[in-house]
Amino acid sequence: MIIEPRMRGFICLTAHPDGCEQNIKNQIEYVKSKGAINGAKKVLVIGASTGFGLASRISSAFGSDAATIGVFFEKPPTAGRTASPGWYNSAAFEKEAHKAGLYAKSINGDAFSNEVKKQTLDLIKADLGQVDLIIYSLASPVRMHPTTGVLHRSVLKPIGGTFTNKTVDFHSGKVSEISIEPSSGDDIENTVAVMGGEDWKMWIDALKAENLLAPGATTVAYSYIGPSLTEAVYRKGTIGRAKDDLEATAFTITDSLSDIDGKAYVSVNKALVTQASSAIPVIPLYISLLYKIMKEEGIHEGCIEQIQRLYADRLFSGKEIPTDEKGRIRVDDWEMRPDVQAKIAKLWQEATTENLAELGDLEGYRSDFHNLFGFGFDGVDYKAEANEMVGVESIA
């Protein structure tokens, strides 16, 4: 079938298998171009099919020759209907990993569930024995609690008052004002249940109970802080409470791993175009301005550049891992540079529908968004018939 992008709001309903494969190849080539990293050799990535989790799997495999197990929840293809992009990403990753002689297997299912945890633990026991790095990079809006059976839904809302500010429809380029009503009822508790640290700790506890963590094992979860421009709706809103919980959980996990000299870290990463961030009002406008400035300064990074730098310069540099006053690894350091933020604050005040194409990098935002779904890559013939029925090799 000929596959074209079909948009519905901030979601693309189609994905291109050949484009997703090209995306994976591009990221692999970047990691290889940066040289070998003396990193972990047996890696579990929870949330491995897109964004930072996918970049972590690629960096582990092709930077450190690591065996990787990836857990994700993606939609496989059916005849005449494409899979979700994460499915095609994972298929391409396994294909390239196996070609390079690297162990790579995947599990497709709800990572919050006890069943998928058990399936993953059984696979580690059978194939790897233990793991020495666990990346936790889930980005789900809902979680069925495995103990209570309660379905929790996260919400993006400010706390204590209505938030009003600019946003942009990145498809049309229209800048407008948006208001978001404050959280109420169980909004905060539900958001923390989905996006906080409880499930991360459940994974680590389950691995430790079965003696599947190697001595000195490290686990890393990903977070975001962002600028004062977005803090009312993000870091000081419901999601911020969940991030606070995630970051506090790192200390709890580290304490629980003291007998194996294990450590848990939260890495604060930069703002990037993802399916999740595209759904957050205000963020697309902020990112389009951020991209413009960081590209001009020569410090722009995508997911793969961020994670490769996290691995090479922080986690596996051979030196003590630098953290901030709250124990967090900061690879948002270039984004949060005072000069960068000052320029964004100025442009924010000036941005309108008429001038955003000039002030910001809206085209770069759109390009990155299309790339998420396998569209817009050089070397791919999008007018040719594509086979949507691509399988992930290790998943029957």
TrEMBL record:
**Biological role stated in the UniProt entry:** Involved in the final reduction of the elongation cycle of fatty acid synthesis (FAS II). Catalyzes the reduction of a carbon-carbon double bond in an enoyl moiety that is covalently linked to an acyl carrier protein (ACP).
Q: Per the database record, which ranges form the Trans-2-enoyl-CoA reductase catalytic domain?
A: 81-316
Annotated substrate binding lies at 224
Pathway recorded for this protein: Lipid metabolism; fatty acid biosynthesis
Q: What class of enzyme is it?
A: oxidoreductase
Reaction catalysed by this chain? a 2,3-saturated acyl-[ACP] + NAD(+) = a (2E)-enoyl-[ACP] + NADH + H(+); a 2,3-saturated acyl-CoA + NAD(+) = a (2E)-enoyl-CoA + NADH + H(+)
Q: Where is this site: Plays an important role in discriminating NADH against NADPH?
A: 74
Q: Could you list the residue ranges forming a coiled coil in this record?
A: none
Keywords per UniProt: Fatty acid biosynthesis, Fatty acid metabolism, Lipid biosynthesis, Lipid metabolism, NAD, Oxidoreductase
Q: Quote the EC number.
A: 1.3.1.9
Top-level taxon in the UniProt lineage: Bacteria
Q: Which GO terms describe its molecular function?
A: enoyl-[acyl-carrier-protein] reductase (NADH) activity; NAD binding; trans-2-enoyl-CoA reductase (NADH) activity
Active-site residue list: 234 (proton donor)
Q: Where is the Trans-2-enoyl-CoA reductase-like NAD(P)H binding domain?
A: 2-78
Q: Which residues bind NAD(+)?
A: 47-52, 73-74, 110-111, 138-139, 243, 272-274
Indicate the quaternary assembly: Monomer.
Regarding protein family, the annotation reads: Belongs to the TER reductase family.
Q: What is this protein called?
A: Enoyl-[acyl-carrier-protein] reductase [NADH]
Enoyl reductase FAD binding domain location: 323-385
Q: Which GO terms describe its biological process?
A: fatty acid biosynthetic process
Q: Which organism is it from?
A: Flavobacterium gillisiae
